[in-house]
Prior knowledge:
Elements: H1 2-9, H2 13-17, H3 25-34, H4 36-51, H5 55-60, H6 68-99, H7 102-121, H8 127-155, H9 161-189, H10 194-201, H11 205-216, H12 221-224, H13 229-240, H14 247-267, H15 272-281, H16 283-301, H17 304-309, H18 311-317, H19 323-347, H20 354-378, H21 389-405, H22 411-419, H23 423-454, H24 460-480, H25 492-496, H26 506-520
Domain Major facilitator superfamily (MFS) profile: 30-485
Protein name: Major facilitator superfamily (MFS) profile domain-containing protein
Pfam family, one: Sugar_tr
Amino acid sequence: MFYQILKKVIKNDAIxxxxxxxxxxxxxxxxxVACGGALLFGMDMGIIGGVLTMATFKDKYDLxxxxxxxxxxxxxxxxxxxxxGAFLGCLFSMWLANKIGRRMSLVTASLFxxxxxxxxxxxxxHLAAMYIGxxxxxxxxGIASTVNPLYVSENAxxxxxxxxxxxxxxxxxxxxxxxxxxxxxxxxxxxGDIQYILPxxxxxxxxxxxxxxxxxxxxxxxxxxxxSPEKALLVLAKLRGLPTDHPYIQQEMNGISxxxxxERALAANSSGWTLVKEAFTVPSNxxxxxxxxxxxxxxxxxxxxxxxxxxxxxxxxVGLSSSExxxxxxxxxxxxxxxxxxxxxxxxxxxxxxxxxLLWTGIVQGIALFYVGFYIRFDxxxxxxxxxxxxxxxxxxxxxxxxxxxxxxxxxxxxxxSEIPAxxxxxxxxxxxxxxxxxxxxxxxxxxxxxxxxxxxHGFGTYFLYGSFCFTMVVFAWFFVPETKGLALEDMDExxxxxxxxxxxxxxxxxxxxxxxxxxKDSPAFEHVD
Length: 530
């Protein structure tokens, strides 16, 4: 039944040719629970922006009456310190994921969350405690943002790898939506300090889910195979719902084992520094390192996190001046993101593919941001007048921007960066990707409020800047991003060793790889390609 539903919504060669048993409910549950760290990230992004607009929070932390530039600086510090922690956490996660495994790394992240959230909720007007709490929570988010996609991609069958890895992005936007409505409810129904303390405390809820779920879940078969191939075979068979002697299980396990053997041979007498060197000196690895770093950079330079962190301020700039209307519009913004992301991972991720998604969404996002910029430049909202007709169109443009991001530069970059590295490089290159993500997330979070205060009336220049980035990244995707839809993780080595990764090389090469997979689908033996 579950497999039949998947076949109706996902169209690719892998799901048609693979044994139906591998597309089972257990795999989906394991991957969804693993994304609890993403839910935490989403809740933090959504909650802090709303909390900063609450009068009770401003009074408690002495932010009321500050000059615009000073307030922008303090607010951006509160927001961005979590990105600084996340940057450190994702660098640390590269070592942690290989040392104690993917599963226990996520358990460790949840413990950091409990400490960080407790400090934030109990800071009671002390900015230092708030900064420390958010920094510690950031370390946890940095670990989870690296290990979540890694764990999911190593557990998911190839035919729904895009769907399940995309659950990471869906969890982020689900957390955002919950946070927006928690803020709105707190503003309407709570008085005093509890109005902002409750939203801050509820950030720990996803960590509880992650902690319990990962204690009960299996470790990644690819990680286990490094220590015990026999145990990895048992875990893989259980995860796929097939006996250990089934041809599909034997083929997948042989592929994992042969890849690990090659990597051990390459790693003989090599240090951690050698691994880093290989990531940038071996041509096929260098291409993948380059893509992991730059795709995450562009994902942030769309301006989406600026919209998320400071959405009440964004909606104020198009005419929604009251806190209640701003937070309500922010709640709708979250729903738009969540529904769009769900549609993408169910119907588009493993059907349309990665490359096409990046191309068309970047164009639409750029157009939407340029419209908002032109509106604010030539017809800015008047005080206490409410939005004009053009203002409502700008509001719709912001919602279109949010929706389209979920079809491309949101989930696709996480899917792509988790699936293209070689197994030996996967933790390192995912660490590079998330380090880049958090570095540029920090840049956006720290700089956006200052840009709104200095780049023209109502910050119209900010929209032109982010819109220009959107058009630039379309050009980047056209020339440098090959398609990976439907390929097994083990085939990425061959794809990226083929020479140029320019788009024009990809279709024929990918088609040939898929043809080879179809030719081998009935064979229990694994044919490795050097």
